[in-house]
Amino acid sequence: MDSLSLRTATVVAAVALLAGCSGLRMPSMPSLPGWMSSAKPAVVAAPPAAPAAASILQPTDRTETWRGVYRQQADSGRFTECRAGVEMPVAAAGDSALLESAYASSRSAPGAPVFVEVQGRWVQRARADMPPSANATELALLVERFVSVSSRTSCAGW
């Protein structure tokens, strides 16, 4: 096998690895000539892992249990999901009124965070801080069932 074919095979393998094509198999290669047999194969670094938020917080129709920190500021609730660590608004629908009530009775001070568990799903909605003509959207938590509230104020130890 000549040097150009070896480089081509290495580039194809690297592209397949970076593209995440784990099922791609390279064709079998003929044995190398004696002077090339001691050559070390090229090592290709794995691509960086995708952020957790990208795989966890996506609009969905599937209800799941979510644990995180909730806080009420002005007239809007904010939820920070523990695994992703991303803060998102809470939609004013479903069991959000029950969540707000539990928050008001268990917080240490106005705006203070509390640890909550809810069942719900992530939905795409129009941004409340923008005019409808802007067509701007945001991801929000739709609380379908309030589960519990805790005196804890963070996700630490969860």
Features:
158 residues; alpha+beta; five-stranded antiparallel sheet; 3 helices; globular
Structure description:
The chain is an alpha+beta fold and 158 residues long. A five-stranded antiparallel sheet has the order 3-2-1-4-5. A hairpin with a 2-residue loop joins strand 1 and strand 2 (76-81). The termini are far apart. The chain has helices at 3-18, 52-56, 96-106, and strands at 64-73, 76-81, 87-89, 114-126, 137-150.
The coarse silhouette is globular
Mean pLDDT figure = 75
Secondary structure: helix percent: 10-25%
Oligomer: single chain
H/E order of the elements? HHEEEHEE
Strand proportion: 25-35%
Radius of gyration: 25 Å
DSSP, total strands: 5
Question: Which structural class should the secondary elements be placed in?
Answer: alpha+beta
User: Which residue ranges are poorly predicted, with pLDDT under 50 across at least 5 consecutive positions?
Assistant: 14-32, 39-54
Quick take:
The chain has helices at residues 3-18, 52-56, 96-106, and strands at residues 64-73, 76-81, 87-89, 114-126, 137-150. The chain has three helices and five strands; from the N terminus they run H-H-E-E-E-H-E-E.
Layout of secondary structure:
Blueprint: H1 3-18, H2 52-56, E1 64-73, E2 76-81, E3 87-89, H3 96-106, E4 114-126, E5 137-150
Antiparallel strand pairs: 1-2, 1-4, 2-3, 4-5
